[in-house]
Amino acid sequence: MAPPKGKSTVMASSSRSDRQDDAILEATWCYYIEGLNQNDIAKRLNISRASVVNYLQEARRREYVRITIDPDIFRHQKLARDMVAKFGLKDALVVPSELTDRGTLERVARGTADWLPTLLEPGDRLGVAWGETVYRVAEAAPHTVMDDLTVVQLVGSRPAALGFAAETCSATLARRFGAHCINLHVPLLLTNKNLANQLRAEPVVAEQLQAVESCNKTIFAAGTCREDSHVVQAGIISAASMRDQVTKGASAVICGRIVDQGGAALPISIEDRMIGVSLDQMRNKDLSLMVGTGPDRIMPMLAAIKGGYATHIATCTDTAAAMLETTT
Question: What residue stretches are annotated with the Sugar-binding domain (predicted)?
Fold first, then answer.
């Protein structure tokens, strides 16, 4: 008795999918392990060269293959060493700039993602900030298991464009590293001080805030103080208030907190309504990895360095050169 038509169609579709998966794996092995070129693989598998190209692209998309360059190459180049020497850093990673800002950000994020696992040890508590830069690093991180690693969300939740919210950044990085994740289950900004204090006193929240304080390592970005900055777009501070802060010397935003060009805090009226890591808690870590690139990040990154918030930096050649040339 023949199988029902619908079942036969499903079985045939599954069989084609299995064959294609096998071909993708074979093409990947031939190219990356045996070193065959695409024409040789096409002949061996009796397929077109275009199919080989598509199979290799699909293998990369599925993360069957992850091509990395030893991060030490970018740590030992002259710009990186000059950054360490001039700014008193523990280490720096400087990747080649690309033609576009977007391309450069992707390079810096990928370089940071490959470097970060080498900076972590069993028992570490890694505090993770928010924003596009940190999100890009988390998305680019390799799938690997970091023994006894805890990832902690540093700031409360706030709606953010394109998935850059704090809980997304921390959860994504924890998933990539097979780590335990402690999210901060409160809003970043409350409507009044009393409500913020009540939430901080809640046992569950108090425990999460203790985890924030006890982080021995952090990864963050120094945001701009422009009217299109992340904190303005997220509704933490208004554009008018940001303009006012700039007249008072605002130079950078670190985990939602504003600092001047020397890295000193510039308290704003909403401080007592915010729940998250404080500026004091961002200092004196075993590792504070600041990631950033682009002309608009030069002054914020310099401010963060002067304030003692960064021990390690990941950036691009253009930004590193500009930071070394800038005197403030």
Answer: 75-325
User: Tokens 């600092």 label which residue?
Assistant: 259
Report pTM.
0.86
Contacts of 149 (CB under 8 A, 6+ apart): 120, 122, 124, 126, 177, 178, 179, 180
Nearest CA to 202 among 217, 187, 215?
187
Buried b (16+ CB within 10 A) or exposed e, 291-306: bbbbebbbbbbbbbbb
164-212 residue pLDDT tens: 889 999 999 999 999 999 999 999 999 999 999 999 999 999 999 999 9
- Scan for tokens 């096998």, then name that residue: 22
Tens of pLDDT along 23-44?
Answer: 999 999 999 889 999 999 999 9
Tokens of 160: 């953010």
- Residue carrying structure tokens 């990941």: 314
Sign of CA dihedral 229, 235, 236, 241: positive
Q: Where are the beta strands (DSSP E) in the chain?
A: 91-95, 125-128, 150-153, 180-182, 217-220, 250-254, 257-260, 287-291, 312-316
Q: Are 220 and 306 in contact (CB under 8 A)?
A: no
What is the spatial distance between Cα 144 and Cα 17, in angstroms, rounded to a whole number? Answer: 27
